[in-house]
Amino acid sequence: MKKLIASAISALFACSMPAHAQEKVSDGIVKIGVITDMSGLYADNVGTGSVLATRLAVEDFGGKVLGKPVEIVTMDHQNKADIASTKVREWIDRDKVDVITELGSSAVALAAMKIGAEKNRITMVTGAGATRISGEDCTPTNVHWVYDTYALANVAGKEIVGSGGKSWYFIAADYAFGHALQNDGTKIVNAAGGKVLGASRYPIPGNDFSSQLVQAQASGANVVALANAGMDTQVSIKQAKEFGLPPKQKIVAMLMSIADVHALGLEQAQGMYFTESFYWNLNDDSRKFARRFFEKHKRMPTALQAGQYSAVLSYLKAVQAAGTDATTQVMEKLKAMPINDAFTKNGKIRADGKMIHDMYLVEVKAPKESTTPWDYFRVVKTVPGDQAFAPLAESACPLAKK
User: Fold this and answer.
1) Cα–Cα distance measured from residue 214 to residue 240, given in angstroms and rounded to the nearest whole number
2) Could you tell me if residue 310 is inside a domain?
3) Would you tell me the crossing angle of helices 106-118 and 176-191 to the nearest 10 degrees?
4) 13, part of any domain
5) Residue 167 maps to which CATH number?
6) Is the separation of the CB atoms in 150 and 130 below 8 Å?
7) Quick check: 13 and 199 in contact, CB under 8 A?
8) pLDDT tens-digit series, residues 236-284
9) Do residues 37 and 77 make contact, with C-beta atoms less than 8 angstroms apart?
């Protein structure tokens, strides 16, 4: 009888234990899959730097979660949604990967998100920006971390229209991200009292922007907005200057990064305004992370790479808090906890999966203003997340209506 009572007490105690004490980790390992552009036009902004950021996040967390090892697997999606989709299915079905991250390229992200939802796996988009990701195509198992095309257009667009850039012409990459950036930019410009005079699109990757630049020049617009990213942005800026668009027409990069400025050089990039979500020299935490990153990568982190660090670190914290790597419980913890790290302070994930955080309007310094290596930006304005991103009430995500 005493044994039965003792067994019953033990069983009752086990049932009453908090989830974290039970440490339920599927397959005895937490696997993080990083799908990124290792060799294409976005490689400098994500690529090996995003893989490094993932490793630093795991290292900072201690290398284990709930006493179990953390493993990182990687692949180059080559900016092709079909290649990424095949690998995502393989990772989940065969390799038991728990979370799929980075997903730079909106087409890749949208494809991976659907598979993640179908198979009840978490996806964390840190490298893609189409508003559809946390809009009409949102899923219960996805979070959208670094930026979206609305915030990019909103922060810089309002400022530029307000300072006299009233007429715009868009040159956009012909895929999901470029379309979204052009569409969101058009809405922001119109709402701010400006006018869009025209637009032209090109297939990625872009090597020759002559036709689009001639059309932009002929439009007479005050502002020529580049709705593209990575090497396409760099090439289009160089060619715009060769065609003599500045100073008569202002060139605005709707998405630009510190890697793009580094590649162009301050002489070419100086004076450009654009929206950023992270800068290495913002505060003590960003500088500390950036120096560690630089020691291993010999380059300062881009916003997307810093965002990848933040997303992975937050995922591990959520697993720890949930006491399991089970998708539903981890997503609940992610959406409940504040995000505080080197990337952002007091970030918060909304019902639509979008992580809301401060955004920054930056200006590229002139060469004479830069006092140290990678001292490239002047932060003109800090825009709180609830003002930078579209309100939840305007979200097309069905989850936002619940």
Assistant:
1) 9
2) yes
3) 110
4) no
5) 3.40.50.2300
6) no
7) no
8) 999 999 999 988 999 999 989 999 999 999 999 998 889 999 999 999 9
9) yes
369 plus 290 within the same structural domain: no
* Arithmetic mean of pLDDT over the chain: 92
Instruction: Give the DSSP letter string of 162-196.
Output: HTT--EEEEEEESSHHHHHHHHHHHHHHHHTT-EE
In this structure, is residue 137 part of a structural domain?
A: yes
Supply the range of the domain harboring residue 175.
150-279+359-384
d(CA 146, CA 339): 12
Q: What is the pLDDT of residues 362-389, one digit of tens each?
A: 999 999 999 999 999 999 999 999 999 9
- Are the CB atoms for 169 and 215 separated by under 8 Å? yes
pLDDT digits (tens, 9 = 90+) for 352-367: 999 999 999 999 999 9
* Same domain (yes/no): 236, 377: yes
User: Tens of pLDDT along 51-88?
Assistant: 999 999 999 999 999 999 999 999 999 889 999 999 99
Does residue 48 have a pLDDT over 50?
Answer: yes
Residues 263 and 376 in one domain: yes
- Tell whether 86 and 228 lie within a shared domain: no
Q: What is the pLDDT of residues 94-146, one digit of tens each?
A: 999 999 999 988 899 999 999 999 999 999 999 999 999 999 999 999 999 99
Residue 79: partners with Cβ closer than 8 Å, 6 or more residues away: 37, 40, 41, 42, 105, 107, 108, 204
Instruction: Count structural domains, the chain.
Output: 2
143 shares its domain with 162: no
Nearest to 351 by CA among 116, 145, 154, 143: 143
* Residue 225, SS3 per DSSP: strand
Query: Is residue 337 located within the same domain as residue 379?
Result: no
pTM of the model: 0.90
The answer to the question of residue 11 being in a domain is no
| CB 106 within 8 Å of CB 95 | no
**Based on the domain organization, do 198 and 271 belong to the same domain?**
yes
Q: Which of 131-135, 148-152, 205-209, 391-395 has the lowest mean pLDDT?
A: 205-209
Query: Scanning the structure block, which residue is given the tokens 């590649």?
Result: 263
Cα–Cα nearest to 75, from 64, 65, 87: 87
> Quick one: 63 and 122 in the same domain?
yes
State the DSSP code for 42: T
